[in-house]
Specification:
Layout lengths: L2 H37 L6 H37 L2 H7 L4 H4 L1 H37 L13 E3 L2 E4 L2 E3 L5 E10 L6 E14 L5 E14 L5 H6 L2 E14 L1 H4 L17 H30 L1 H7 L6 H15 L7 H9 L9 H5 L4 H67 L6 H26 L4 H24 L8 H26 L1
Helix pairs in contact: 1-2, 1-5, 2-5, 2-13, 2-14, 5-13, 8-13, 10-11, 13-14, 13-15, 14-15
Length: about 525
């Protein structure tokens, strides 16, 4: 390696690791602030918190690494340009591409390492983080009662409208559903105007004192008629104490790793298998429900009647069977139906609408009621199934995006290097001032494009692969443009095509005015 290549590579690597350390520290602090609520009040050992933050580090790489490459390349090449080192290189016949040669090799090797890292280390670390979060969430669940939602707490589900007082121990508008060991479901409901959580310092028993409420208990009966006569027992109370044993909850194995995520913990080969499995299941569910809806609504039977009839007897038999199923109170005779069919051309298409108006008002009303009841009963089913299929489609898109993200990250690092290096040579400024501002603007543009594309891809607005690659695709022509501008010693944007004609026009106007004044003086 030549001295110049070694010098450029050493300068870039020093800046790279310095910036990487600073950015990683900033993102770790941001992560601590984000997860502080999950650790607060649970007496978690420092060793567990340290492990959690250690396994969280690889998950920050997709954010930290592209920004580090962009900022380090701008700072390094901006410093070279600011100190006229590039001018010395160019005077010696060394172009920008030649100066970038050693760094291009370094970035390509870094991209390969990044791909391996994102395919193996990040899924493993993601699994550790998800399981640790799940286990930590089970420690002292009494501290995690959320307002306005049901919270699973021991053998009860509790909902409160508002918490107040020290550590949120005062509860307002309490609703409790007690779980039954002998029966499946919640058969006991307790409502109270207010409640207070009381517990000893090292006690595993949580006391919930309720004030001014009612106790509802559903009575098991043998028949449905008995249930209508005595649906439940109701009693009122002024004070009711409910003790909850938390010993099982505080005895949580924080090393348990039984939780599995559908896509965050998988590498590319596993994601391909998962994608094929989910795609097949999704298509089978759609086809199965499509057949069910057609059978339920009778669409196939309706479509079969809209065709040309070959003989009078065949058509009479088919139409009579269809009408007899709908009009149970007043069946249509074969003679009357044949008389109606004879009024049509037997070789023309007989539609449902034309048949409908051949019957009297009572029969039409019956037909209309049957159709309305069928539609009203099937619409909620279709709406519910539509939401379920939408959720499964979103999960399918997320799996595909997760697979493409592992490929897109290394390419993003390469593209951002070819954005930052020429950009630093153009702005000719080193340090953490202007390069930091420019790098943040470029990176935020890249990040938000990827974020919006990812959200659109999850909803199905754009293809899933485009949600992972769109930001990189947009930055690619920008990197080519900047490299060309820096190589040819041009500025960021050439506005000569705007200002030169304006200057020529102004000079021409001044010349004309000067000539006119000279003629007037003569």
């Amino acid at each position: 390696m030549k001295i110049l290549d070694r010098y450029i590579l050493t300068s870039f690597v020093k800046t790279f690791f310095s910036v990487f350390t600073i950015l990683m520290f900033i993102f770790i602090l941001q992560s601590v602030w984000r997860f502080i609520e999950e650790f607060a009040g649970k007496d978690i050992d420092l060793d567990i918190i340290s492990k959690f933050l250690f396994f969280l580090l690889p998950n920050l790489i997709p954010m930290v690494l592209p920004l580090t490459i962009l900022l380090a390349s701008i700072m390094t090449f901006g410093s070279f340009a600011e100190q006229y080192e590039f001018a010395a290189m160019k005077s010696a016949g060394i172009s920008l591409q030649r100066a970038m040669r050693s760094l291009i090799v370094f970035i390509l090797l870094l991209a390969v390492v990044t791909f391996y890292f994102s395919n193996t280390v990040i899924p493993h670390a993601e699994g550790k983080v998800l399981n640790m979060r799940k286990n930590i969430a089970q420690v002292k669940p009494s501290m995690a009662i959320v307002e306005g939602a049901f919270n699973d707490l021991g053998d009860i589900n509790i909902k409160v409208s508002k918490k107040s007082g020290p550590n949120g121990k005062n509860l307002n508008d309490v609703i409790i559903h007690k779980k039954s060991e002998s029966r499946i479901g919640n058969y006991t409901v307790i409502k109270a105007d207010r409640g207070v959580l009381e517990s000893g310092l090292n006690s595993n028993v949580l006391s919930l004192v309720l004030y001014d409420g009612n106790y509802y208990d559903e009575i098991p009966t043998k028949t449905y008629q008995q249930n209508l006569k005595a649906p439940f027992v109701k009693s009122a109370f002024e004070i009711y104490v409910l003790n909850i044993d938390l010993s099982d909850f505080n005895d949580v194995d924080l090393k348990d790793e039984s939780y599995r995520h559908p896509y965050k913990m998988l590498n590319i080969s596993e994601l391909k298998i998962q994608l094929d499995s989910f795609s097949s299941d999704y298509n089978q569910r759609r086809e199965s429900y499509d057949r069910f809806i057609k059978q339920r609504s009778g669409v196939n039977r309706v479509l079969n009647t809209e065709k040309k009839f070959e003989t009078k007897e065949d058509n009479s038999r088919k139409i009579n069977q269809s009408i007899d199923k709908s009009l149970s109170n007043e069946p249509v005779s074969s003679d009357s139906l044949n008389a109606k069919v004879e009024s049509y051309d037997l070789y023309s298409t007989l539609s449902v609408d034309s048949l409908f108006w051949e019957y009297n008002d009572r029969q039409r009303s019956q037909l209309f009621n049957v159709a309305t009841n069928s539609v009203n009963s099937i619409i909620p089913q279709i709406s519910s199934k539509k939401n379920q299929m939408k959720q499964r489609k979103m999960l399918l898109n997320k799996i595909e995006m997760s697979m493409h993200n592992k490929y897109a990250l290394p390419f993003a690092c390469i593209i951002l290097f070819f954005v930052g290096a020429p950009l630093g040579a153009i702005i000719r400024k080193g340090g953490l001032g202007l390069p930091m501002v420019v790098a943040i603007i470029v990176f935020l543009t890249y990040h938000f494009i990827g974020l919006f594309a990812g959200n659109s891809a999850e909803g199905g607005s754009i293809p899933a692969f485009l949600g992972s690659w769109l930001s990189t695709i947009i930055l690619f022509p920008f990197s080519v443009y900047l490299t060309y501008r820096a190589t040819t010693d041009q500025g960021f944007v050439n506005l000569d095509f705007i200002f030169v004609p304006i200057e020529k026009g102004i000079k021409k106007i001044k010349t004309n005015i000067f000539n006119i004044r000279n003629k007037e003086n003569d």
